[in-house]
């Protein structure tokens, strides 16, 4: 396991579970990953099907929500098992098992699913802002880009604080709907009867398919297998069994909270809309508009909008993490979390802005449906490999799932795959009829056939043992010989006349040898220096010259040849230019010790400088 890169390496095994004290504290240390997963089950993409089910059929389809929640519990517990026992996330396991070209297609499908999920979150947040503040949808979509920076801030705080933030949002969503339930006063006996399985007609069957199809999110399977690895556990059998048990409890509690939210939306629609003969409420805007007159309270629509914004905001955290996992797992490619988040969000924002700008606000509902179709299309390609992996006794050992659980898992996979492919088939057929374009028709048919063939390969490839050993090493081979490095004959020092300069000089003298030449560099930053450069003659320039003379004398007294260069603007460019001109072997710079916002305010040199020079950079701090 040591020859592979770790899932979410910056937080891998960052949460200690061997806690002294009560057993309750030890159990709590495992709780958290599933709450990040649960937000995907209550994202804005699910709300439309819940509203449609409740407004058309009252409480009748609550059992469908419960059944889909139980399916999700089985699959999420399997993916947690994979991460804990195998020590790899789902994307890494796929890369190790399937051929290179097939893996690339699976990666593209996973990225499409993440972008589709992000699209639903962007639209949900924009709709919520529109309903609550009357903000134009186009501006709401644009504003959703700002949560990119919220996620980056949360990641810097650490895994536990991020989990606490998500749990806080889930709690507030739950409170919003609890108040809605009190205002709606649903019939408890009718709610209880809704748990008895029944399908009144074909329309109810179609909505049931939509509810089940929108339940399990493919990116959640990738994400959960990585998040459970943030817990530091011993690798003995007893410790692994405890981790599996506690993570199952975590998953069960978190998904039941998601079930409460989804059931609350359906019950709200049943007790408010269905009861009053409003049987065709499926749009989020319609539900918001009708809540106040039917419940007689202005708080009802406001809480609905607040919950919608919170749902969109909480779901957005998981998309980037899932994107990082699939990119690193499938491609062995790491990019900056900030860049990753921005790319993911732009993939959702740009299509949303274009559609709203060109077609108008009326197309937001169909876009939400489209995002769910894209998610449905990818789901089978995550579920089927997962079941293969947790059934593999060679890799899972005593923790491979039992025959009974295999039957349940494959049955769930078959149901979900069938329902999702049926949804995709119906949407493709509808698009063919609406657009009536032979080229689009041919493209959709080829795409559909291609997906079916890929599904067969996903099922059959591990069974017929065509496994091929794939190098999972993310780094180049380990070199046990020490490379010869050149001596530092010319050392450049970037001096800013701050408190860090003494350290820069001290390290320079320690790294020097007889005959070393020093190049002292300073960039004047006064206003007159920037404008007049060498012609300036202000107090700061005279002070700078006096200080530089003292530094030159210090090095000469110790027997070193010393040169100096003074620049007046663009410190990074000037320092790099001097290093290149003197052919320096090493650059030593000081550090102010500030970071984050202070870097933005005062300017940040070191990080940009190391990309401009092709010599070692020593940071004295």
Automatic annotation (TrEMBL):
InterPro entries: NRAMP_fam (IPR001046), Rossmann-like_a/b/a_fold (IPR014729), UspA (IPR006016)
Mode of membrane association: Multi-pass membrane protein
Transmembrane segments: 27-42, 62-84, 104-131, 137-154, 166-184, 204-227, 248-273, 303-322, 343-360, 366-390, 397-419, 439-464
Subcellular location(s) per record: Cell membrane; Membrane
Residues annotated as domain UspA: 488-619
NCBIfam families: nramp, Nramp_1, PRK00701.1
Role description: H(+)-stimulated, divalent metal cation uptake system.
Protein name: Divalent metal cation transporter MntH
Taxonomic path: Bacteria, Pseudomonadati, Bacteroidota, Sphingobacteriia, Sphingobacteriales
């Amino acid at each position: 396991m040591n020859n592979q890169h770790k899932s979410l390496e910056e937080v891998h095994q960052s949460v200690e579970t061997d806690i002294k004290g009560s057993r309750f504290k030890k159990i709590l240390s495992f709780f958290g990953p599933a709450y990040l997963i649960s937000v995907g089950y209550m994202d804005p993409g699910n709300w439309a099907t819940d509203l449609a089910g409740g407004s058309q059929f009252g409480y009748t389809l609550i059992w469908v929500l419960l059944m889909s929640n139980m399916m999700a519990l089985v699959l999420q517990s399997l993916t947690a098992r994979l991460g804990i026992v195998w020590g790899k996330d789902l994307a890494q396991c796929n890369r190790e098992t399937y051929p290179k070209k097939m893996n690339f297609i699976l990666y593209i499908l996973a990225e499409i699913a993440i972008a589709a999920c992000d699209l639903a979150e962007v639209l949900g947040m924009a709709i919520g802002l529109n309903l609550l503040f009357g903000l134009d949808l186009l501006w709401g979509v644009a504003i959703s880009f700002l949560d990119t920076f919220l996620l980056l801030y949360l990641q810097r705080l650490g895994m536990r604080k991020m989990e606490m933030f998500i749990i806080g949002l889930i709690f507030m969503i739950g409170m919003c709907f609890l108040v809605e339930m009190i205002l709606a006063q649903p019939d408890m006996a009718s709610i209880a009867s809704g748990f008895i399985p029944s399908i009144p007609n074909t329309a109810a069957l179609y909505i049931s398919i939509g509810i089940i199809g929108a339940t399990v999110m493919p990116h959640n399977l990738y994400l959960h297998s990585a998040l459970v690895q943030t817990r530091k556990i011993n690798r003995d059998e007893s410790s692994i069994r405890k981790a599996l048990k506690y993570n199952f409890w975590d998953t069960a509690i978190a998904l039941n909270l998601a079930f409460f939210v989804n059931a609350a939306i359906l019950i709200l629609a049943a007790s408010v809309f269905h009861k009053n003969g409003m049987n065709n409420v499926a749009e989020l805007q319609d539900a918001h508009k009708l809540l106040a007159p039917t419940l007689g309270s202005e708080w009802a629509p406001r809480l609905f909008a607040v919950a919608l914004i919170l749902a969109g905001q909480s779901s957005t955290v998981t998309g980037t993490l899932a994107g990082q996992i699939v990119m690193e797992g499938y491609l062995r490619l790491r990019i900056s979390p900030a860049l990753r988040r921005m790319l993911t969000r732009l993939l959702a924002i740009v299509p949303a802005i274009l559609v709203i700008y060109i077609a108008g606000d009326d197309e937001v509902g169909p876009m939400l449906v489209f995002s769910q179709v894209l998610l449905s299309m990818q789901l089978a390609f995550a579920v089927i490999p997962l079941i293969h992996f947790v059934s593999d006794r060679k890799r899972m050992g005593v923790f491979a799932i039992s025959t009974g659980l295999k039957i349940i898992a494959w049955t769930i996979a078959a149901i979900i795959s069938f329902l999702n492919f049926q949804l995709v088939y119906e949407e493709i057929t509808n698009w063919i009829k609406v657009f009536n374009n032979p080229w689009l028709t041919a493209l959709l048919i080829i795409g559909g056939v291609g997906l079916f063939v890929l599904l067969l390969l996903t099922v059959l490839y591990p069974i017929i043992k065509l496994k091929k050993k794939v190098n999972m090493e993310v780094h180049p081979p380990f070199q046990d010989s020490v490379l010869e490095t050149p001596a530092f004959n010319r050392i450049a020092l970037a001096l800013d006349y701050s408190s860090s300069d003494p350290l820069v000089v001290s390290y320079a003298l320690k790294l020097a040898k007889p005959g070393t030449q020093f190049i002292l560099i300073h960039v004047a930053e006064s206003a007159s220096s920037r404008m007049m450069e060498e012609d300036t003659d202000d107090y700061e320039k005279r002070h700078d010259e006096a200080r530089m003379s003292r530094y030159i004398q210090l090095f000469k007294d110790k027997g070193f040849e010393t040169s100096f260069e003074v620049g007046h603007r663009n410190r990074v460019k000037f320092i790099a230019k001097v290093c290149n001109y003197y052919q320096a072997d090493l650059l030593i710079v000081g550090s102010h010790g500030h970071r984050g916002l202070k870097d933005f305010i005062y300017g940040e040199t070191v990080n940009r400088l190391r990309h401009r020079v092709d010599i070692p950079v020593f940071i004295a701090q």
